[in-house]
Amino acid sequence: MTSPERPARGRPRGFDREAALEAALAEFWRHGYEATSVAALTKAMGINPPSLYASFGDKRRLFTEAVERYAETHGDYGARALAQPTARGTVETMLRLAAERYADAGHPPGCLVIDGATNTTEASHEVKEQLRGYRERTKHAIAEKIEVDVRAGILPSGTDAAALAMFYAAVLQGMSTQARDGASRSDLERTVEVALTAWPA
């Protein structure tokens, strides 16, 4: 009588991959890329290291997948805002949705794309650049919307689109930091109201 065949060493056991990815996303969001260890990830995900490597590749690739998931779910406010017909609508929608999302008690505070790689060593340079790329694309998209409205006469001809886009990007980044420091949604919404007064008349 032969013994039953055993699974190959390191083969991932059955687990909910989507739930594991959400758990990894929360860990990266809460602690940042570099401060999140593989041991912390596997504990949060409910899997062992061989399963993580077999299913997600490695910590770096897992982070990329987590950021993509974030952009599609918790961080989709940027894409939703950019779908607005005017630059003013885009900026206001982005700020108001950010105030709601950043202070939502159902997940870590702030924004993963803003805070996920604030303190990294040279070894994590690619991660820092990846997140910077997300932020830069959003900022440039806002600037392009502003330029369109300037050409259409909706905004004054002397409006500095790049500077205005950078200003509101800075407001978003500051709101994320404030949320991580404990600011409530109402606190952030008041910040939005003040920030909108800077919009060109």
From TrEMBL:
Reading the lineage from the top rank, the first entry is: Bacteria
Tell me the GO molecular function terms: DNA binding
Please verify whether the record's keywords include Transcription regulation. Answer: yes
Alphabetically ordered keywords of this record: DNA-binding, Transcription, Transcription regulation
Q: Does Transcription regulation count among this protein's keywords?
A: yes
DNA-binding region listed in the record: 37-56
Indicate the segments forming the HTH tetR-type domain, all copies. 14-74
Please name the InterPro entries in this protein's record: Homeodomain-like_sf, HTH_TetR, Tet_transcr_reg_TetR-rel_C_sf, TetR_C
Span of the secretion signal?
Answer: none
What PANTHER family does this protein map onto?
A: HTH-TYPE TRANSCRIPTIONAL REGULATOR YJDC (PTHR47506:SF1), TRANSCRIPTIONAL REGULATORY PROTEIN (PTHR47506)
* This protein's name: Transcriptional regulator
